[in-house]
């Protein structure tokens, strides 16, 4: 783990809110020169504190009417096979290993019930599933967390 100071946390907070801010915008918000901000961002990228930049999509506008949270009770001996299969599933937005009865939690999008049912059928060999349909997202997966140096 690298050592971050208040300026690094301020940069992270600004980029989390909008990763497309210009160096000029960042430098004015943080009260640091643009070259100094650029140097710090490169350091945060090189030490993998910043691991990427992503577009946040409106899946409904792309035709994906259903967002589901799918939990899988995955036995440890099936973990490698599951990882190989899930990497090939473009509809899976996120997939996390968890504690508890259901060791996997995925968030995935589907064009309709048929796609969701097919996906669930493909998950059945890996263990018991529990599925929840998202009615509304109150906080998107790429949230706008505010970081502080005291963390």
In short:
The chain is of the alpha+beta class. 34% of the residues lie in helices and 17% in strands. The chain has two domains: 6-46, Winged helix-like DNA-binding domain superfamily/Winged helix DNA-binding domain (Arc Repressor Mutant, subunit A, Orthogonal Bundle); 59-133, Alpha-Beta Plaits (2-Layer Sandwich).
Can you put this structure into words, describing what you see?
- The protein has 151 residues and is α+β, with helices and mostly antiparallel strands.
- The protein has two domains: 6-46, Arc Repressor Mutant, subunit A (Orthogonal Bundle); 59-133, Lrp/AsnC effector binding domain/regulation of amino acid metabolism (RAM) domain (Alpha-Beta Plaits), CATH 3.30.70.920.
- Helix content is 34%, strand content 17%.
- It contains five helices and four strands; from the N terminus they run H-H-H-E-H-E-E-H-E.
- It has helices at residues 6-17, 23-30, 34-46, 79-86, 113-123, and strands spanning 66-72, 92-97, 104-110, 129-133.
- It has a four-stranded antiparallel beta sheet, covered by helices on one side.
- Helix 2 (23-30) crosses helix 3.
- The longest helix is centred in the N-terminal third of the chain and has 13 residues, at 34-46.
- The protein is elongated, with a radius of gyration of 19 Å.
- The protein starts with 5 loop residues before the first helix and ends in an 18-residue tail after the last strand.
């Amino acid at each position: 783990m690298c050592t971050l100071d208040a300026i690094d946390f301020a940069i992270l907070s600004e980029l989390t809110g909008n990763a497309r801010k210009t160096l000029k915008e960042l430098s004015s918000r943080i009260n640091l020169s643009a070259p100094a901000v650029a140097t710090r961002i490169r350091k945060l990228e090189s030490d993998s504190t910043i691991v990427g930049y992503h577009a946040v999509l409106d899946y409904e506008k792309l035709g994906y009417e259903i967002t589901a949270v799918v939990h899988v009770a995955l036995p440890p001996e099936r973990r490698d096979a599951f990882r190989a299969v899930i990497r090939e599933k473009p509809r899976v937005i996120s997939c996390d290993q968890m504690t508890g009865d259901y060791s996997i939690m995925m968030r995935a999008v589907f064009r309709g019930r048929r796609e969701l049912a097919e996906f669930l059928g493909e998950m059945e060999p890996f263990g018991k599933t529990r599925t929840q349909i998202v009615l509304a997202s109150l906080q998107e997966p790429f949230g706008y967390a505010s970081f502080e140096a005291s963390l």
